[in-house]
Amino acid sequence: MTERSNIFSDIMDREGINNPKNCKTLQFSRRKEYFEIIKYGYWNLMRNSTVITNSEFSRRAIVDAFGLGNIYILSPPIDIETFSNVALMTNGDDKRNDTILVIARIAPHKKIENAIKLAKILKNNNIGKGMKIVGNLYYYFFDYYSELQQMVLNLGLTDYVTFEINASLDKLLSIIRESRVYFHPMAGEHFGMAVLEAMAAGLVPVVPNEGGLAEFVPQEYRFNTIEQAAEIIVCVLNHLPRTGRIEISNDINKFSNTHYIEGFQTILNEVVSQKKMMSANVRKCLPDRAWLQQI
Question: How far apart are CA 166 and CA 105, in angstroms?
Fold first, then answer.
C-alpha cells in the first residue's frame, strides 16, 4: 500500500494535482486498488468458510467465481401451508379467472418490462382477462415505476395491466385466489421463492428456461422467448384441467419449513463431524507430551 501510495504522490507532484484528467486517473486507480483489496479479502473469506447456497445454479456460479469445491445446497424455506390453503379454498369453485399474476419487486433488474411485453401479445390475441403485477416499491425506483406505467399507457394496456404496490399478505392471497397463471419476467433468477409460493397456491408457473427456477418448474412451463411464454399461457388457459395445478402444487412440499430445518441440521452435523475429524488428525501429528518432557 505504501509503495502504491508513493506512486500516486509522485504523479501528483510531477503532473500537478489541479489537472482534472490526472485527478480522474488517480480516482480510477484507487478505486481499482480498493476493489482488488476487497475482492482478495472476500475470496479468503469464502475459501475459509462453510458455503451454503440456494440452488445448483448458484452453486455453479460460486464454483466458477471462486473455484470452491465443497458447497452445500439448501433451498430457502417456503410457507407452503399458507399458500396451499389458497389452492384448497379455490379447488372446485369458479373463483379463479384467466388472470396472469406477476410477483416481483419493482426494480430494473427484475425486468418487469418483459411482463408488459407479454401482456401486449396476450391482449392482441384476446388471451386472458388481464395481468396483475404485485410488488414492493422503494423510493429510489420511483423513476423505473413511472417508466413502466408510461409503457403500459403507450401500448394501450391500461385496461389489461394493473399494479398492486406494497400489497399486504391478505391482499396478495386475495389476488392469487383470482389468478390462474404465474409469470416470472426475470431470466437467471438464483432461486425464486415467489414462484414456489404461487405453485403452492395452485397457479401454473411460466418461467424463463434459465436459473434456479429450471430446477423445480417442469420443462413444459419454461420459455426462451416472450412469444414462447405466450404460447404456453394459451395452452394452459385453453387445455390444462384444474387438477393439473394441484399436482404441481403437491410436488413442492420438499421446500417446506420442516424440510429446511432437517436439511440445515444435516449440513450442521456433517460440518461438525468434519471439524472433529480434522482436530483428531492434528492431535495425532503432535509429539507425545511425555516424550517432550524428557528432552
Answer: 9
Closest CA to 103 of 222, 233, 193: 193
Answer whether residue 95 shows pLDDT above 80: no
Pick from 193, 254, 264: nearest CA to 50: 264
- Tell me which DSSP letter residue 136 carries: -
Q: Which fold has domain 80-255?
A: Rossmann fold (3.40.50)
What is the side-by-side strand order in the sheet with 179-183? 161-165, 130-135, 99-103, 179-183, 204-208, 222-223
**What's the first-to-final CA gap in the chain, in angstroms?**
45
Q: What are phi and psi of 167, to 5 degrees?
A: -75, 150
Return the pLDDT at 155.
98
- Whole-number Å distance between alpha carbons of 124 and 247: 31
pLDDT confidence of residue 277: 78
In the chain, which ranges are continuous DSSP H helix? 2-15, 20-47, 56-66, 80-90, 113-124, 142-154, 169-178, 193-200, 226-239, 242-250, 257-285, 289-293
Q: Which residues contact 59 (CB under 8 A, 6 or more apart)?
A: 53, 71, 73
Largest CA distance in the chain: 92
φ, ψ of residue 156 in degrees (nearest 5) = 70, 40
The CA distances from residue 221 to 20, 229, 236, in Å, are: 55, 8, 9
Listed by start position, the domains of the chain span 1-49, 50-77+261-276, 80-255
DSSP 93: S
Q: Is the pLDDT assigned to residue 226 strictly greater than 70?
A: yes
Task: Give the residue carrying C-alpha cell 413444459.
Answer: 220
